[in-house]
Structure formats: C-alpha cells, structure tokens
Amino acid sequence: MISPPGNRPASNPSAGALSIVLILALTSALLLVVLIAMVRPGSAEAAAGAHPLFSSLFTSSQRLEGHTGHVILGAIASAVMVAVMTMMVVLGMRRPGKPHAVTRWIIAGFAIYGLILVALVGAYRAYAGGTTVMVGGFPLPTALLVYGVWLFPWFFVLLFVITFDRSVFSDTDQEAFDALVRRERPPESDT
C-alpha cells in the first residue's frame, strides 16, 4: 500500500540493508566469474576448422577437454544471475506486513528456472560426450534452451498479469495514490 511519507509503517531497516549487501555480493561474484572467464585461456579445439569431407564447410569440436572450465564458469554465472533476478523481483514485490503468496510462487519459479539451467549444463556435457537424445526435434541441450530457458519466463509474465491487482498495485494502493495526488495537487484557480 502506498502511504504518505508521515504515515509509513515502521519497516525493518536491517532487512533492507541485508538485501542490498546480498545483491552487492552476488553481482560482485558475477563480475568475478566474468573476469576469470575473460582471462582464462581458451581451447584451440573451440576454433572452427575445415570440414573433413566438404572443404567449403567449417566444423568445430564438441569435446570438452579444452573448455570444461568455461562450462563450469558459465553454470556458476547462470546460477548467480538467477539468484540476482530472484532477489530483485522479491525485493520489488516486498510489501509491509507478511509476504504475499505471489512471492512464494516467484521464488519457486526462479528455483525451477535455476534447475532448468543446471539441467542444460548437464545435458550439454552429456551431448558433448557423445550422448544424443532428441526432444521436440532438437538435441536435448537445444530443447532445454528453447523450451525451458526461452519459454519458462512466460510463467512470470502470466503470474504478474493474473495477480497484478492483488500483489503489485491493488485497489487500496490506487485509493491511497489518489488521496496523495489530491492532497499534493495545488488548488485550481478560477481565472
């Protein structure tokens, strides 16, 4: 609920400070992972080379020997990004009083999203090791990317659309906002 500055309920300042410290720590960890990935030497296997049968095509290696570290760094970066997104959304959804039920759905959704990313890394490692499983017309890593990483965020869109008037901006919030506008608006002159 939107309250005028003088009527705001007392909030827990340590919770806000803890959120800020946690977000700062997570973004610092993400920066560290990116910097490590930038300075870590890559593999010559990752570069494109001539196709053995068709000279006009290029091919690259799917072997993990040269870039296992980069796959692990990518997995860590993905996990940290999901954690930062979760913190930001939950912080934005924070309301005075007890947490709204939508917050639990958001946390559960981001947990599922994180599991999809972990499954993607595992599927990539298996695929690069020679195991090919086709799902929905794609190899499993691509299917997880298309059907999981790309489509799953629609869960959050639908969640916000369905619960917007209860969890984001309720009728009570609108009334408080209208009262605040009326109180702060200068009186209209008759001239």
Structure description:
The chain has 191 residues and is mainly α. The chain is 63% helix and 4% strand. The protein contains six helices and four strands. It has helices spanning 13-39, 68-93, 101-128, 140-150, 154-168, 171-184, and strands at 49-50, 58-59, 134-135, 138-139. A two-stranded antiparallel ribbon has the order 1-2. A two-stranded antiparallel sheet has the order 3-4. Helix 3 (101-128) runs antiparallel to helix 4. It is elongated. The protein starts with 12 loop residues before the first helix and ends in a 7-residue tail after the last helix. Mean pLDDT is 80; it is low at 1-10.
Low-confidence stretches: 1-10
Number of strands: 4
- Rg, alpha carbons: 24 Å
Overall outline: elongated
Biggest pleated-sheet summary: 2 strands, antiparallel
Oligomer: single chain
Strand order of the largest sheet: 1-2
Average pLDDT figure? 80
- DSSP strand content: under 5%
